[in-house]
From TrEMBL:
It is found in: Chromosome, Telomere; Nucleus. Residues 288-442 form the Ku domain. GO terms for molecular function: ATP binding; damaged DNA binding; double-stranded DNA binding; helicase activity; hydrolase activity; telomeric DNA binding. Belongs to the ku70 family. Its main location: nucleus. This is SPOC domain-like protein. CDD domains: KU70. GO terms for biological process: DNA recombination; double-strand break repair via nonhomologous end joining; telomere maintenance. The keyword Nucleus applies. The lineage of its organism: Eukaryota, Fungi, Fungi incertae sedis, Cryptomycota, Cryptomycota incertae sedis. The keyword Transmembrane does not apply. Signal peptide: none annotated. It comes from the Eukaryota.
Length: 454
C-alpha cells in the first residue's frame, strides 16, 4: 500500500505518487506570468498527468493512496488552513469517482473555467514552508507501514520567495526536515518562455543530485519521466558503515533479486465490500476485562521459577551490539580476507547490493569508492558484522567489490558498488553422511535395470 499527494501552483506543478509501499507528494506551482497559458495549459497538462497515473494505479497498484493539493490559489482548503493552499483530493485509494473528478476539472479548464485552479494575485505567494508542512502532516496521518515517501515537485519557478530571504530559509529548513523523516523530494523542472530554469538558485539544496533532471519543454516528456519515477528502484534500507572509531559513512541497501510472492489477502465488509481494519484485543480470562499493553508480561522459566520481565526489558534482551546511536545497527568492519577464500557454497541466501548515500553523511561516495578500489587492487574482501535493524540478530557478511562496466554502446550494465553476502556460522556447515545414500541408490538402479532387461 502506498500514499500519493498532489499539490498545484499555477505555472508549475509539483507532484508525488506512491508505489508499492511508498508515499509521494505532488505539488503544482502557478504564477501570474503568462496567466492564460499557465492556468489553461500548464495546469491542464498537470491534471491530465495526475489522471493518467490514477488510471494506471487503479489497475496495477490498487492499494496505493493518492492525493491532490493545489497551491497559490485564491481559495483555501487544507488541514491547517494555511492561506493560498487548496486540498483538491485527500489521500485515498484511486477509484472511478476520483478519476471522474479529474476529468471534470480537465473539461472545465478546456472551457476556460478555472474554479479552484484560479491563481492568487500577482503579489501573493503560498509559503513553501506551509506547503511542506502540510505534506508532512498528511503523510503522518495517512501513512501506515510505508516503505518510502516521495514528493514529485513539478515547477518552472526557480526562485521562490525571491524577495523574502527569511521565508526561503524556512522553506529550506522544512525541506531538510522532510528528508530526515524519510520523505524525499524529486524535482521536475520546466523552462519559462524567456528564461531557462536555474537549479543553483534554490533547489540544489532541496533535492538530491541523482534525482536532478534537465528542464522539460513538452508534456509528453514529463509524462515519460513521471512513469519512470513511478517504478523507482527504492533502497531496502539506509544504514551506516562503521570503518573505525567514530568514523561512519552512509550506505543504501538494495535487493537485486526477489522471488515473486502472492499478495496478502484483504478482509472486506460483506455488506459494503469495503476494506475493513483488523483490531486485536487481549481479554483476561479471569475478569473478562481488556488488557492494556502494560498488563501483559513475559517470563522465562528457570530453576522451577518464572523470571518475569516487561516489554522494555524484552527489547533490551533482543538488542545486539553497542548501545550507541550510530553502531546499534548497520555494518561494522571487522577485517579482511583474500577474495579466493569466499566459496560459492557460503551463500546462504540472496545477496544484497550496497551503494553509497551522501544524503545522510556527506562525502560517503568518495570514501566508499576509495575503499572498494583498495579492496579490488589487493584482491581482498571485507568481513563485517551486519545488523539489519534494531532487535535483529547479527550476521557475519562479506563485501565483494564490483566495478562499473559498460557495453559497446556506452550503456552501463553493472553499477559500481559491493555485494553483501551473508556468511554461514560454524554450526551452519556440516558433512552429510552420503555414503549409505549413494550405495542405496546404486542397488536401486541395478534392480530397476535388471527388471527391465528381463
Amino acid at each position: 500500500m502506498s500514499n500519493s499527494f498532489f499539490t498545484t501552483w499555477n505555472p508549475s506543478w509539483t507532484g508525488g505518487f506512491s508505489q508499492g509501499n511508498d508515499e509521494d507528494d505532488i505539488l503544482e506551482d502557478e504564477n501570474a506570468e503568462y496567466q492564460e497559458m499557465q492556468e489553461k495549459g500548464f495546469v491542464l497538462n498537470a491534471i491530465k498527468c495526475a489522471r493518467s497515473v490514477l488510471e494506471s494505479k487503479i489497475i496495477s497498484s490498487e492499494n496505493d493512496v493518492v492525493g491532490i493539493l493545489l497551491y497559490n490559489t485564491k481559495q483555501t482548503r487544507n488541514v491547517s488552513q494555511f492561506p493560498l493552499i487548496y486540498m483538491f483530493q485527500d489521500m485515498d485509494q484511486p477509484d472511478a469517482q476520483r478519476i471522474m473528478e479529474l476529468e471534470k476539472m480537465e473539461k472545465d479548464l478546456e472551457n476556460g473555467q478555472l474554479n479552484v485552479t484560479e491563481s492568487c494575485e500577482d503579489d501573493q505567494m503560498a509559503s513553501y514552508q506551509d506547503l511542506f508542512w502540510i505534506c508532512s502532516t498528511i503523510f503522518s496521518q495517512k501513512a501506515h507501514k510505508m516503505g518510502s515517501k516521495r514528493i514529485f515537485l513539478i515547477t518552472n519557478e526557480d526562485h521562490p520567495h525571491a524577495t523574502n530571504p527569511a521565508l526561503q530559509t524556512s522553506a529550506l529548513r522544512r525541506a531538510k526536515d522532510l528528508n530526515e523523516l524519510g520523505i524525499s523530494i524529486e524535482l521536475f523542472m520546466f523552462n519559462k518562455a524567456n528564461k531557462n530554469f536555474d537549479l543553483n538558485i534554490f533547489y540544489k539544496n532541496v533535492v538530491e543530485e541523482e534525482d536532478i533532471q534537465n528542464a522539460e519543454s513538452k508534456f509528453e516528456e514529463l509524462m515519460v519521466r513521471i512513469r519512470r519515477k513511478e517504478t523507482k528502484k527504492r533502497p531496502l534500507q539506509k544504514i551506516l558503515f562503521g570503518l573505525g572509531e567514530n568514523f561512519n559513512i552512509s550506505l543504501k541497501v538494495f535487493l537485486l533479486f526477489s522471488p515473486a510472492r502472492k499478495g496478502n489477502h484483504v478482509y472486506l465488509d460483506s455488506r459494503t465490500n469495503n476494506e475493513v481494519n483488523v483490531m486485536t484485543e487481549y481479554i483476561c480470562k479471569d475478569s473478562a476485562s481488556n488488557l492494556l499493553p502494560s498488563d501483559i508480561k513475559n517470563y522465562f522459566e528457570y530453576g522451577g521459577e518464572k523470571a518475569i520481565f516487561n516489554k522494555d526489558e524484552l527489547l533490551k534482551i533482543k538488542k545486539f551490539g553497542p548501545q550507541t546511536k550510530f553502531l546499534s545497527k548497520g555494518l561494522t568492519l571487522l577485517g579482511f580476507k583474500p577474495k579466493e577464500r569466499l566459496k560459492l557454497k557460503y551463500n546462504l541466501k540472496n545477496s544484497y547490493f550496497i551503494y553509497p548515500d551522501d544524503s545522510q553523511v556527506k562525502q560517503s561516495s568518495l570514501f566508499f569508492s576509495h575503499f572498494l578500489d583498495k579492496l579490488e587492487a589487493k584482491g581482498k574482501i571485507a568481513i563485517c558484522r551486519y545488523i539489519a535493524r534494531d532487535y535483529s540478530k547479527p550476521s557475519i557478511v562479506a563485501l565483494l567489490p564490483q566495478k562499473e562496466q559498460f557495453d559497446e554502446n556506452g550503456i552501463q550494465i553493472k553499477p559500481p558498488g559491493a555485494h553483501l553476502i551473508t556468511l554461514p556460522f560454524a554450526d551452519d556447515l556440516r558433512s552429510l553422511p552420503n555414503d549409505s545414500i549413494q550405495k542405496g541408490n546404486l542397488k536401486f538402479l541395478k534392480s530397476i535395470s535388471q527388471s527391465r532387461s528381463s
